[in-house]
Design goal:
heterodimer; A: mainly alpha; three-stranded antiparallel beta sheet; 14 helices; elongated; B: alpha+beta; Dipeptide-binding Protein, domain 1; Dipeptide-binding Protein, domain 3; five-stranded antiparallel beta sheet; five-stranded mixed beta sheet; about 30% helix; globular
């Protein structure tokens, strides 16, 4: 299987060229790091502890509900079967052998931090609260930690965009290549279908569907995917059209290779340029689409942490002047999009056929 | 949240079927009618101190789509101004402080013994805005027009046909109105309005041709100058016939009301701050709590008041569909009641501005005064959960019973307005081991689903009237049918009995007792978690606007309902001079006022 995509000398040159373009190279490193880190969001922002040592035993509650009785805790109503309050546990255990290791941000993204902020008369101060030691980026209008929501929101949007792009590419590449290779009636009908289908405005269709069913991550992905695959077919189709007349393709055919083998083993590796160069921009489109949908209130259901929802909160007139609500999602979104754009630009440059090409 | 489904309650009334049209007999006045009137209540407003004159600058969020009083688009935002200032169409009014009937276009009325018909004697001095007298013919014409499909308002057609059997002229100033069914509230039910028979013609295309014609109306104001998209000016008729009626003498004092189009609420406040509007109603708790500590108030140019009022408020809160397996269990429902933490929502999201609702008939005399809300009480919630069999927490922290059923309910909503509140409710429930899933749909889809009873729990937001409508919400015949307003699928033979007493019994005390019992039953059955209400109006004004001692009457929902204020031109000159010179005047420190003694405890 790997031999199908073994690195050709040309590709190696292109990768080397990409690494030379600093801004793209570093952007790729930063973004990959961010994605990798975001995989561990539950260990970075969570109200559940990472490790608890209690009576000589170790507990790892991050992905597990652990009742208060496990650690001998009791809530204000005297119950012991509620979820453990690890932050309080940490305080209670100060100076004992037992200890709790809390994540960097000891709040989960949908936790309302209500009882902490009080004015001088002990009256609760309603959220949103500006940034301080407790919440580095402040809280939103439901008292939820903005940093935690940003982090989980990043994970969600980047993986949504990656999945969308990847799945869209798989479908698009298969259909586009077959169109180019088979040509004839298959090309004709599929192309007409794509032309008509692509006229449907994606966001409106999603909004319409939203009125009937409430989407989950996977249904939203599926709905967006219905439209996502078409873009790349145009390029694959033309690439394959061009490549299939070259000698190596004819040679493969003469040797009796199957359609599948010709298309995916011989032609595809030579048609990768559009795939790779358009990829980052497709990811950007995916992030933007999810953010806009969430902003408009047609995205993933609350309380899903999302950037669009944060931006929507900051646009609400009752949050006027609450800069931390505007700036955090704005900076995060801009930064992410710039990173991806720079990667995309650099790839495009590295793959520029005017610099190095297979055929001179 | 209150107006979301304003028309739902009326729709059901309208869904009752037509009976045959009765032929109109030559009507005469029967012997032995008991004529009633009421001139004994105090006037509305303060006719002794009120000064007529001046201009009030007001704002509306969109320019009227029509000035017509009937037909397409005549029921939009502008209708609030039109009905309260220009139309004045009631035969008999209800006094907003005493709740007694008071004369309006009719000075006397007599209800027949069968409680089906009412005879009205019209005020002979009443005239249209063009000076022509208002006669019985105008009422007959009004009735015929309301039945005329040519007005392109099928809802009015159907409603009128369903409720009224006939409107007959006895003589120039006497009419007889007959309803389809006898009713103890016959004066309320037989809604009828006059239209100017001498100028109005319903013919094809009339609705476009007369869209922006100044309508001939019976009220104290007519439309003066209007600038499309910018403003509408209402001009007072100083010789309005109604000023001779003691109840209305103190109202309608400003000579001119300039209603300016300001699309955004924030902009309205900005204009007020700049002194370009005289009066604003403040509906947002956040604004009232955090944005109003500003110079115009501190320097005494303007003042703001939170006036407690007592108005009917329909059900709003979480409803439960009793067909849902888990919600069939009363103990589980009670646990949901006890885990609802209103105080937290009120302090954290609503600036402590609101009051907990208790009754299903909130703000009416039919609300049981002895009911106490289910407070937030995790201990009691726990007891009920255990009784319901939910004793063990599952791996995800959600309770499960022996049969493996999870303590999980889906709540269907039809809008985003309470999203933040519900997220918090969800978190509170989760602490007790109850999973509340929130399913948010588009408004129309959501409403269809809850009427089909295709939901588990659901958000409720209904409007309420002076007389509640328990039949459509709680009657058992409505419980089994799809597409009814008994979203709860609640059915109880005793409740049916009580509803029938309320609907048909002529003894007022019996009706009250029945409704109080029903109210207590609804609370005990625990299928409705009432949220909160706002039993007040909050407004700010420049202090050249003056008010009676009680500001607005007890039954005020909007400042437009009863224009009791007047404009003191002398004071206006003084304050404007002070504003120019930046002089500080004595501020008005009183914000909360409760002249009617209706503030909830």
């Amino acid at each position: 299987m790997w031999t199908w995509f073994r690195i050709s000398p040309l590709l190696r040159r292109r990768i080397a060229r990409f690494c030379q373009i600093r801004r793209g190279f570093y952007s790729l490193i930063i973004l990959s790091l961010a994605i990798f880190v975001s995989l561990f969001s539950n260990y970075i922002a969570n109200n559940r502890a990472i490790i608890v040592k209690y009576n000589g035993e170790y507990y790892f509650p991050t992905y597990k509900f652990m009742a208060m009785e496990v650690f001998g805790q009791e809530d204000e109503w005297g119950f012991t079967d509620a979820e453990t309050d690890y932050v309080r546990l940490k305080k209670e255990w100060e100076g004992t052998e037992n200890w709790v290791m809390m994540p960097l941000i000891p709040f989960n993204p949908s936790q309302n931090d209500f009882d902490f902020y009080k004015d001088k008369d002990e009256q609760p101060i309603p959220p949103p609260h500006p940034p301080d030691d407790r919440h580095l980026l402040g809280t939103d209008s439901q008292g939820r930690d903005v940093a935690a929501r940003l982090l989980y929101g990043f994970r969600l949007s980047i993986f949504f965009a990656l999945m969308l792009t990847l799945c869209g590419y798989v479908i698009g590449v298969v259909i586009g290549s077959l169109q180019g290779f088979l040509a004839g009636w298959f090309d004709l009908t599929t192309q007409r279908f794509i032309e008509i289908w692509s006229l449907l405005p994606v966001l409106y269709v999603v909004i319409l569907l939203r009125t009937v069913v409430e989407p989950t991550f996977w249904t939203l992905l599926a709905v967006m995917l219905i439209f996502e695959w078409m873009g790349i077919t145009y390029y694959m189709r033309t690439e394959v059209y061009r490549e299939k007349t070259r000698e190596y393709a004819l040679a493969a055919r003469a040797a009796g290779a199957s359609t599948f083998r010709i298309v995916f083993k011989h032609l595809l590796p030579n048609c990768l340029t559009p795939l790779i160069t358009f990829g980052p921009f497709a990811i950007i489109a995916g992030i933007s689409a999810l953010t806009s949908l969430d902003y408009l209130g047609y995205g993933l259901p609350p309380p899903t942490p999302s950037w669009g929802e944060l931006i929507e909160q900051s646009m609400d007139s009752s949050n006027r002047g609450k800069l931390w609500l505007v700036l955090s999602p704005f900076v995060a979104l801009t930064f992410t999009l710039i990173l991806v754009t720079m990667i995309g630009e650099s790839i495009r440059e590295a793959f520029d056929p005017r610099r190095q090409s297979r055929y001179d | 949240m209150k107006t979301l489904f304003a028309s739902a309650a009326i729709l059901l009334v309208a869904a009752m079927t037509h009976a045959e049209e009765a032929p109109a007999p030559a009507a005469t006045l029967p012997e032995g009618l008991k004529w009633q009137t009421n001139w004994d209540d105090p006037p509305i407003g303060d006719p002794e101190h009120a000064i007529k004159g001046g201009t009030l600058r007001d704002a509306i969020s969109s320019y009227p789509k029509t000035f017509r009083v009937i037909g397409p688009n005549s029921n939009e935002m502008w209708a609030n101004w039109r009905r309260n200032y220009t139309e004045f169409s009631g035969l008999v009014g209800r006094h907003p402080n005493t709740d007694n009937y008071i004369p309006a276009l009719a000075v006397e009325w007599a209800i027949t013994d069968d409680n089906k018909s009412v005879y009205y004697r019209l005020d002979p001095t009443a005239t249209w805005s063009d000076g022509k007298p208002i006669t019985a013919d105008d009422f007959v014409f009004g009735y015929q027009t309301a039945l005329n499909p040519g007005i392109l308002d099928p809802f009015v057609n159907q409603y009128t046909g369903d409720v009224l059997e006939s409107v007959e002229k006895i003589d120039t100033h006497t009419i007889k109105v007959t309803g389809r069914q006898p009713s103890w509230r016959v004066l309320e039910d037989l809604g009828i309005f006059p239209l100017p028979a001498h100028v109005m013609k319903i013919e094809p295309g009339w609705e476009v041709a007369t869209n922006y014609h100044v309508p001939v109306t019976a009220g104290p104001y007519t439309i003066g100058e209007s600038k499309e998209g910018e403003s509408v000016t209402l001009v007072r008729n100083p010789n309005w016939w109604g000023y001779k009626n003691k109840y209305y003498a103190g109202l309608y004092n400003a000579d001119k009301i300039v209603v300016r189009v300001v699309p955004e609420d924030d902009r309205v406040y900005d204009f007020f701050k700049r002194g370009e509007l005289d009066f604003i109603q403040v509906n947002r708790a956040r604004r009232w709590a955090t944005e109003m500590d500003i110079d115009i108030f501190k320097r005494g140019y303007a003042a703001r008041k939170m006036l407690f009022t007592d108005t009917p408020d329909g059900m709003s809160g979480i409803g439960m569909n009793l067909n849902t397996p888990i919600l069939k269990n009363k103990d589980f429902r009670k646990a949901l009641q006890y885990m609802f933490n209103f105080e937290e929502l009120n302090t954290q999201l609503m600036f402590n501005a609101y009051f907990r609702k208790v009754s299903a008939f909130d703000g009416t005399e039919f609300a049981n005064p002895d009911l106490k809300p289910y407070g937030f009480d995790p201990r009691k919630a726990r007891e009920h959960l255990q009784k319901a069999g939910f004793t063990q927490r599952g791996a995800d922290g959600i309770l499960v019973n022996k049969a493996g059923q999870r303590a999980s309910v889906t709540l269907m909503t039809g809008g985003k307005s309470l999203e933040a509140h519900l997220n918090i409710v969800q978190n509170t429930y989760k602490k007790a081991g109850i999973e509340l899933k929130i399913q948010s749909l588009e408004g129309a889809t959501y409403f269809e689903k809850i009427r089909e009873k295709a939901s588990e729990a659901f958000m409720l937001s209904m409007t309420g009237g002076f007389y509640p409508e328990p039949f459509q919400y709680f009657n058992s015949t409505q419980a089994k049918e799809p597409q009814t307003n008994n979203f709860f699928a609640f059915s109880n033979p005793r409740a049916d009995e009580l509803i029938d007493i309320y609907r048909f019994d002529m003894d007022k005390q019996k009706r009250l007792d029945a409704m109080h019992e029903l109210d207590a039953m609804i609370q005990d059955e625990a299928f409705y978690i009432p949220f909160w209400n706002a039993p007040f109006i909050r407004f700010a004004y420049y202090r050249w606007i003056e008010f009676p001692a009680d500001y607005f009457p007890k039954r005020t929902e909007s400042y437009l309902d009863y224009p009791t204020y007047w404009i003191n031109e002398q004071k206006k000159a003084d304050i404007e001079a002070a504003m120019k010179e930046n002089r500080v005047l004595a501020a008005d420190p009183v914000i909360e006022v409760d002249p009617h003694g209706v503030k909830p405890k």
